[in-house]
Amino acid sequence: QDALVALSFSGAIGLTFLLLGCALEQYGVYWPLFVLIFYVLSPIPYFIAKRISDDTDSASNACRELAYFFTTGIVVSAFGLPIILARAYLIKWGACGLVMAGNAVIFLTILGFFVVFGGGDDFSWEQW
């Protein structure tokens, strides 16, 4: 239960960085909120690969590696989007830094969730 509180707190900190990069008066542009799409998309390849590898053991390694590849692409895209927005002068570099800090915290939170709660085969939502 302490892990859940810590993950919730770190998620709130990450989203605070993201919102500060958008809503501070000197920035005031909400384009960086598009990284929320990457936050939602990042665990999906892992869920699909875990579901498929539970059914068949022969292709589980290749499927898992492909899921890691897609997840890496999603995470790199989430870090690249604010840089592209800043280079195109759609957001300021300070906002880019805050969004990148939020990205780091949020993705570490997502990773922490899978490390803490998804490690064993006896995972159930009842342990919350």
TrEMBL record:
GO term, biological process aspect, one: late endosome to vacuole transport via multivesicular body sorting pathway
Protein location: Endosome membrane; Golgi apparatus membrane
Keyword annotations: Endosome, Golgi apparatus, Membrane, Transmembrane, Transmembrane helix
Cellular component GO terms held in the UniProt record: endosome membrane; Golgi membrane
Ranges annotated as spanning the membrane: 6-24, 29-48, 68-90, 97-118
Membrane topology: Multi-pass membrane protein
Similarity comment: Belongs to the OB-RGRP/VPS55 family.
Protein name according to UniProt: Leptin receptor gene-related protein
Organism this protein belongs to: Scleropages formosus
